[in-house]
Amino acid sequence: MGKLNKNTSRLLAGIVAIACIFACAGKKSEFAPDPADYNRSESGTIAVSGLKVGAAVADITPSKNEWMAGLRIFRKSRGVHDRLMAHVIVIKSADSTIRLVSLDLLGMMAHDIAAFRNGMWNPDTDPPPVIACTHTHSGPDMLGFWGGASRQYTQYLNEQVKSAVRQAEENAIDAVVYAGMGQLPDGTVKNIRQTDLLDLEIGVLQ
C-alpha cells in the first residue's frame, strides 16, 4: 500500500468540515500513492483499498455554564438543550495516518488548534490532523470574541479530543474508502456579504 497524496487527503477531509478547512500540508513526494492503490471511475469517484479506518465520538459539552460564541458578547449558557460532540475519523495507510476531527463549536484559534495537535500525530510521516468546527452558535466561545471559554473547559476539550482520536485509531479496521467531488446546483447556497463569491464544490466520503 502506498501513501495518499495531498489532493486525496484534502478530498477525504472535505466531508467533515462544514467550513472545509484543509490542513493536509507537506511535500507531495512524502504522500505520493502507487497508481495501483486506487481506482478512479468515469464520474471522478476514487476508490482506495488497503486502508484501515476507525471512528469515535466524544461528548464535549461543558459541565458548567460558559460564555457562548456568536450573536452578542457576554451571552452565557443557561443549561443544555443538545449535547455538543466531537466526531473523529482516522484513515491509515501503511505509511501515514489522516486524522479528521469535527467539533460542535463556532471556531478555534490557530494556537489552540496547534496545542490540540501536539502529541496527536507524527509530523515526519503524517499530514497535520484536520480540526474543523460546525459553526454552531450554541457552544463555548473558543475564539475569545464574546467572553471566552474557561481554562477548565479548554483543558477538558483538549483531553476529550485526544481521547477520541486514540479511540478511533484503536477501532480502525480494514476498509475500502470511496471519495468524490461534485457541484451543488445553483440556489443551494448564498453569500449575503459578497453575492458573487460562492463555493459550490462538495466532497463525499464513504
Walk me through this protein's architecture.
The chain has 206 residues and is an alpha+beta fold. Helix content is 18%, strand content 25%. It has three helices and seven strands, in the order αββββαβαββ. The protein has helices spanning 6-13, 110-117, 151-171, and strands spanning 38-40, 46-59, 85-92, 97-103, 130-133, 173-183, 201-205. Strands 1, 2, 3, 4, 5, 6 and 7 form a seven-stranded mixed beta sheet that branches.
Question: Unreliable runs, pLDDT <50, ≥5 residues?
Answer: 6-33
Helix and strand composition category: alpha+beta
Provide the β-strand percentage band.
Answer: 25-35%
Number of helices: 3
Name the shape in a single word: globular
How does the major sheet shape up? 7 strands, mixed
Query: Approximately how much helix is present in the residues?
Result: 10-25%
- Supply Rg: 18 Å
Order of helices and strands: HEEEEHEHEE
In angstroms, what separates the terminal alpha carbons?
19 Å
Keywords:
3 helices, alpha+beta, seven-stranded mixed beta sheet, about 20% helix, globular
Give a quick precis of the structure.
By secondary structure, this protein is of the alpha+beta class. It has helices at 6-13, 110-117, 151-171, and strands spanning 38-40, 46-59, 85-92, 97-103, 130-133, 173-183, 201-205. Helix content is 18%, strand content 25%.
